Structure formats: C-alpha cells, structure tokens
C-alpha cells in the first residue's frame, strides 16, 4: 500500500484509461477537493520508456481537508470503464469514494483494511442517460 502524506491525504491510482479520461477523473476530484494538487504522474510498468502496450498508472494525491459539495450534480462522461485504487485512512478514502460516486457510475471491487489505512478498488463506469 502507498503511504499518503498525512491522514487527510488519499492516494488515487487510475488504470485502464488514457490521459484524457484520467484528466476528467482528476478534474472531478479537484472540483470536490480544491486544495488537491491535481498533479498527474504517469508510471509505466516493466521499466522506463513509452513502449506501446505497456500499462499506465495515473496518480494523484487528494487532500480531503478542503472538501466542498459538488456544484454540478451531472455525471461526468467517460468513454470506457476506469479502474481506481484509493489508499489512505478510512474516513478520507470514504469521502473520495463518495465524490467519485457522485460524478461517475461506480462498481465496488473490494476493500482491504489495514491497521491504519484502507485500500479500495473501484471501477468507474460510463453513466447511461447522462
């Protein structure tokens, strides 16, 4: 598991999507948690480089202390499902999960509790009829 900077930070890892989709998910998180850096880091498994076909992980850290209610209740469009892994203390992870559920269709694919943190895997899905 990844160790966020503080108990209020949640590490968010997106897989199975391109940069535009990752940007849409991170923009939705930035709207809900405006102090988040919005930084996206692309990591490629299997070493360095940009070889085609290598999985990409888009990462950001969300600071949940500045959570604000979503002003746009409309779902954010996605062109394909996206796997999201959240790592952090239980309550902040739940807050990020709630905000993602307000912006996207969400399927819960499991939770792994730790001594001081929680790992949650979600799949964000396109919302039909949006």
Task: Give me some keywords for this one.
single chain; 130 residues; alpha+beta; 22% helix
Sketch the topology as an H/E string, one letter per element: EHEEEHEE
Low confidence ranges: 43-50
The beta-strand count equals 6
The N- and C-terminal alpha carbons lie at a distance of 34 Å
Q: Percent range for helical residues? A: 10-25%
Cross-sheet strand order for the largest sheet: 2-3-1-4-6-5
What is the overall number of helices? 2
Estimate the mean pLDDT confidence.
81
Major beta sheet summary: 6 strands, antiparallel
Protein architecture, described:
The chain starts with 8 loop residues before the first strand and ends in a 5-residue tail after the last strand. The protein is globular, with a radius of gyration of 14 Å. Helix 1 packs across helix 2. The protein contains 2 helices and 6 strands; from the N terminus they run E-H-E-E-E-H-E-E. The longest helix is centred in the first third of the chain and has 14 residues. The relative contact order is 0.25. With 130 residues, the chain is of the alpha+beta class. It has one domain. 22% of the residues lie in helices and 33% in strands.
């Amino acid at each position: 598991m990844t160790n966020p900077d503080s108990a209020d930070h949640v590490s968010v890892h997106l897989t199975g999507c391109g940069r535009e989709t990752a940007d849409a998910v991170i923009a939705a998180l930035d709207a809900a948690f405006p102090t988040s850096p919005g930084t996206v880091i692309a990591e490629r498994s299997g070493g360095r480089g940009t070889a085609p076909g290598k999985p990409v992980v888009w990462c950001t850290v969300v600071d949940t202390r500045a959570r604000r209610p979503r002003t746009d209740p409309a779902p954010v469009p996605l062109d394909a499902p996206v796997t999201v892994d959240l790592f952090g203390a239980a309550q902040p992870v739940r807050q990020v999960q709630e905000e993602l559920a307000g912006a996207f269709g969400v399927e819960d694919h499991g939770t792994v509790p730790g001594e001081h943190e929680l790992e949650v895997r979600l799949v964000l899905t396109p919302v039909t009829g949006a």
